[in-house]
Amino acid sequence: MTSRYRTIVDVHVLLRRADGRVLLMERAGTGYADGQLCPPSGHLEAGESVVAGAIRETAEEVGVELGAAELDFVHVVHHRNGDGEARVGFFFLADSWRGSPVNREPHKCAGLLWADPADPPAHTVPYTAAALAGIAERRPFSLHGWERSPAAEPADDRRR
After folding, report:
1. pLDDT exceeds 60 at position 155
2. I need a labelling partner for 86 at 20 to 30 A (CA). Which of 44, 77, 115, 144 fits?
3. 3-state secondary structure (DSSP) of residue 142
4. Under 8 Å CB-to-CB from 15, ≥6 apart: which residues?
């Protein structure tokens, strides 16, 4: 009998200004992707919905308040890192919020940057860059990191 699949769930919030740029944070001091950019994000906590997690993480990391009605689901990524560990990341877009984004976690973040989501900086976390590309192409789903094992996915899905 095979064991039931379990994974880490990540939530990501793309705060988008009127000029179309989204907020990215430079990771620092975490041991994962330090020096690379990602949106406000984090792991889902036990008993928490993806919407509640997105609201919590955004408040914790950049100090803005969001309501569920301000979040639009835009993409999900099934990601696998180089060690073969998988996670699922939900990406939400918000065009309005209360407060001004500030770096509330300087021990984990070297700074904030507003970037063009259609042309993210080269040092964007690859998982995030894959999601931004999928969003730009108006695809609701993408795979990232699974190409290292062609047997892990059906042939028809390898082109994504």
Report:
1. no
2. 115
3. strand
4. 22, 23, 39, 40, 58, 62, 64, 94, 97, 101
